[in-house]
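Q: Sequence in, structure out?
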Amino acid sequence: MAVLVTGAAGFIGMHLCERLLARGEQVVGIDNLNDYYSVDLKKDRLERLNGEGFTFEKVDFSDHQQLEKSLSGKEFDRIVHLGAQAGVRYSLINPRAYVDTNVAGHVNIMEVARERQTTHMVYASSSSVYGGNQSFPFRVDDRVDQPVSLYAATKKSGELMSETYAHLYRLPMTGLRFFTVYGPWGRPDMAMWIFTKKILAGEPIPVFNHGNMRRDFTYIDDIVTGVVAALDNPPADDGEEKAGGSTKPHALYNIGNNRSEELSHMIDVLEDALGKKAERDLQPIQPGDVPATAADISAIQRDLGFEPSTPIDVGIPKFVDWYRSYHGNRTG
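A: Exactly. Output:
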């Protein structure tokens, strides 16, 4: 049986598909290839997945009729739902895109899981759900009912709806709250990419909250290891309390690097990797942003044996090497 991966042309999706294919899994990938960022980058990612074991369908999963038609005749018994409208700041500009994709689209994928009676659905949540949370580091059993962006609110909605489906239909569900993922083949709207591009061009980089920001930067290989571990360990329908507090077959985990880094230190490491100093344009914090994130990963360590192994002084040079190579092979 195959694994259905949504957002297969995305950053995490491509890396996950590669890992699953490498261990002999059949993968059905879907993605709508929208133009939120470079479609060429998404197509280049898909090029890496072409080959035996991988099937791709271009489909917008927020359209349930289109989704059902595209999946007709395709066999799979597990789902990893990574597709989403991403980006905190863009949610201030185009809020309806987030409701269509992250709310209606999440329901559509859960309906596929219900109709197919899949053995497990792993889905992407976000550290953004912690919003105005005052405890530090963030724990999966903290209250997350004070989102500071619509993006965060839609991700929390996904968690609530998943709890409902786990209750009503006993579908095993696992939500993963990702913390600032970075690495090769990342997104152009992410800080690491933006900073690298501007530093190499000799342009100032925007440093928000005057640099007083902390993030739990998590390298892509560690993230994928955690996703696969979750996929292989569906929560049991045994009435016992799971990570995140559910007594249904629904678990929630933080998945981060277990080390919150100062933004200024991240920039220092990036400068070293690039061999070039940045001109730092200090700016106030942006609407929807939070000043600090840090993941308490004790639950995923305990249940799934997850142990991130890539500090930023290792991961950032790998990203820079990829960035130079990728853009060196292109004219624009």
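The two ends are 41 Å apart (CA to CA).
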